[in-house]
Amino acid sequence: LLDRGVPIDDPEHKRILALTGPLASFGSEFLNNPPPAARVAEILPVMRALYAEEATLQQLHAQLASGAVIDLLRACEAVLRSADFSWDSDTLEFIKTVILRFANDPNPAYDPEEDDRFQEPRICGAAPRIDAARAIMGLARRDANWANDLRAVIVKLAGDPVAEVRYEIINRLTMVYKTAPDLMWQLLDKLAREEENRGVLQICAGVLQQCANVDPPRIAQLAENIFQRLPAEGRGVDRKSTRL
């Protein structure tokens, strides 16, 4: 943060850093594993406290503000994976509010050069709208009512101008196989017809593999459509034989 010009000794910046530290640690600890109920109960007050500082964040260094939002969204994604936490409607509404707030964040902006680089397989970056896309699918997985409430936003993110945002939605489509199967098929059909970014098309092929036994004829047709849409030239083409 110092290298990026963040005045970490400023009292307001220090106060926000005191909140983001536990969230960042929580997100790292439970990057892939579901947190136990006790840890979720511990981190939720910190999440609420940071979200209450949204107005303050807008006055701070942009690098710190963006990092704080990302830490909050990653904590949302992690807590939603808890298998034994007793969820209540107020807590779920809070998480929904956070996710929807940043699903419309202007960061990341569309950058044609960055999108072109995403034609090659690589790890996605960090930005509020990217991390909101990751978290929203975990909430939609909870039940059909939540999936229906979030449907319009999920569709919008699946058509986002930035390839990395679309990738995060498509990569998690099987999460809504039980709660919104029609939405899953709708987005797979649309992507097979319209998607042009190779990185997004490749992850779609991976999703089709995961649900290949659900409807083999439909999956086969979608896979054929995707293969036909794969760019014949440009970044990532030399990886075709190894990735698909």
Structure in words:
- With 244 residues, the protein is mainly α.
- Helix content is 65%, strand content 0%.
- The protein has 13 helices and no strands.
- The protein is globular.
- Mean pLDDT is 88; it is low at 239-244.
List keywords for this structure.
mainly alpha, 244 residues
User: What series of H and E elements makes up the topology?
Assistant: HHHHHHHHHHHHH
pLDDT averaged over residues: 88
Sheet/helix structural class = mainly alpha
Rg over CA atoms, rounded to whole Å, is 19 Å
User: Count the strands?
Assistant: 0
With helices defined by DSSP (H or I, 4 residues minimum), what is the helix count? 13
How would you characterize the largest beta sheet?
Answer: none
Terminal Cα span: 39 Å
What helical percentage do the residues reach? 55-70%
Low-confidence stretches: 239-244
Roughly what fraction of the amino acids lie in strands? under 5%
What overall geometry do the principal axes of the alpha carbons give? globular
Topology, please?
Layout: H1 11-29, H2 37-51, H3 54-57, H4 62-79, H5 89-103, H6 112-117, H7 128-140, H8 144-158, H9 163-171, H10 181-194, H11 198-210, H12 216-229, H13 240-243
Helix pairs in contact: 1-2, 1-4, 2-4, 4-5, 4-7, 5-7, 7-8, 7-9, 9-11, 10-12, 11-12
Write a concise synopsis of the structure shown.
It contains 13 helices and no strands. The protein has 244 residues and is an all-alpha fold.
